[in-house]
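User: quick one, fold this
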Amino acid sequence: MARTDHRTMRRVLRREIAGTIGLLTDEHDFRAMRRYRTFTFDDHLTYLRQMEALLRTRAAEGTQTTLALFDPEEYAEFCTVTGLDADNPASRTRFTAELAATGATVPYDGRPLTDLVPALVDEAVRQATWEYASTLLARLGPCPTCGEDIGRAAFTRASHLLSRILDTAPAGNRHLVCSVSGPPETLVTVLHADRNDEGTTHLDEAEALEFTSVLALGLATRSPGGLVMRTSAPAAPDRVYGWRLRGNSLDPLTAGEVFDAYCTDVESGDLVSPESDVDYCAPPDLGDQGTAPGHHH
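Assistant:
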């Protein structure tokens, strides 16, 4: 009787333990793991089917599971640094535990992996973009004129500009895209911010942090770039408008410039038909964006 009670208690406790599973999302990463003898799968599709069955079973038992992006190259480096045997399941478990604490993750919510994998990849890209932008901001150092930290000041300024952009936008669904060009690559970040009729704005804090960091980097380094927003509301045409990053400020695009950007094929340069029920327009005034003369921020 006591043994049965102990088993029951252990089952209850197991349901309350959250776990993380490292997922090989594409064929290339899967093939890279096949070089390890203890990795027993030989077909990526079968691997995903078995993984999905495991996730469903854990969910049916009431166990919470988080998915992390398992990168074989990062795993090999992790094993080298820590002195672990890469061809050992316990090493993979330890690496996955590290991912749970520091890497991109999404909770398993019952959706098929075909829906969750893109969400996981997007989360990984978002985190990598934020880390990269934050690193570059931290390297900018102090302003030679006033000694203020340029990266921190740029982030504060970007936060203010984003707040003004959202405050001046109409109610509804807002989709913002910011791109900053520069070596070694162009950074692109997306933010969804919905505001109801009462004026309350709902947004994802991680998205907002990444978006603000990329915008701050563009402002601080005076890199070419732009910010475009599309707003959608019931019984009204969508509105599209934006700004050009110029120096350390945002210059409004004209309605014609926004139209050209959306209605021109990037590769051929040919005009494409504009979307129906979409207004391409100039943005609202954001107010004074001035900074002290001679400053880099």
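User: anything notable?
Assistant: The chain has a mean pLDDT of 86.
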